Fold these 2 entries.
Entry 1:
Amino acid sequence: MKIGHKNVEDDGVFIIAELSANHNGSLETALETIRAAKRSGADAIKLQTYTADTLTIECDKDDFIIKAGSIWDGKTFHELYRSAFTPWEWHQALFDCAKEEGLTCFSSPFDKTAVDFLEGLNAPAYKIASFEITDIPLIEYVASKGKPIILSTGIAGLEDIELALDSCRRMGNDQIGLLKCTSSYPAPIEEANMAMIPEFKERFGVVPGLSDHTLGNTVPIVATTLGAKIIEKHFILDRSIGGPDASFSMNEEEFTAMVKAVREAEQAVGKVSYELTEKQKKGKDFSRSLYVVKDIKKGELITEENVRSIRPGFGMHPKELKTVIGKRFLIDVEKGSRLELSVIV
């Protein structure tokens, strides 16, 4: 699955900096956040494309007041999204800035009008947010565009995931990333459940990944070691600027450290191979082999007293010790000589 310039299955973990509401209403802040994401080592910047009116209605009935044990409790849905949305008139400038920086830019659309708008910007991929994974008409419409689609699973059970994936494939789209996500803000690390990363790949045949709301970089590292190919984290210039997502977003220093840790984790995972590197081959010098450990006269018997398995590893293989015991030396041999077949009869 290729997104922008990167094959996310073969070219290393695809690291996404999520802008979300972290522009705090300032286009210049949004642009500088994109530049900082590039400095931090991100591969992509992701936006969210909605308005308060495309997500909900303005209503103060009890159903529309947030009371989910979140940092946004007490607000109405409309109030939250009115304060958090990214103006659509900014998108062209944000896409252009990302292109100048060499970052892939794409977005989470929240209705069909947003998809149509992003198509006009040649968005290279789409992300379905956790809370939209049950919006099958939206998923079908996005999938019909034939571009990679990344699904976040924060509120999804098995049936929800299967239905969403079936919807994509029914539209002829099998370019699917599936992200383990915990929809708490911030998310407790004990609820990360990174065991789902290999499960997603094996059960569903998708590109597995992580959309992370925990604090710190432990979970992204663990995800990488378990096979995650996509990692998304909220990114902010400085948490002091505030905003709905500030408390669980990484600043530039933290994101840079996470990227470094993920890249090192990738290197540590490596690949299945029994072939030794040159350094490992050199390490064989420290292995055991058979050496003559006493001065020997021609005709003497080989015993465990005069031949031993010791370091270094330039002599005969230790497995030959039982074979050579009881044989005789053909010549005089000095202590510290490698045992070789040419001196044995």
Entry 2:
Amino acid sequence: MKLDRITSNPNRMNEQPSIRNLRFNVRRVIELLATYSDREELRQEFPELKDEDIQQALISASSYLDDRIIELPNRNETVA
């Protein structure tokens, strides 16, 4: 998926990935999602943020996370 709503400008927001050159960086959008459990309330508070912006912010943030495989103990083993 092309992240055409995520921008990076060296002269704005310390070159952090932002939403459509607005003053919302990807990190701030993730924080807002954690803070506002109701998306409708989030939309009312920040009407300039669109659903596509939120979706692309989540995709962008997830691309920075490494996939790891964590081995779980065998069901018959005791965990100390």
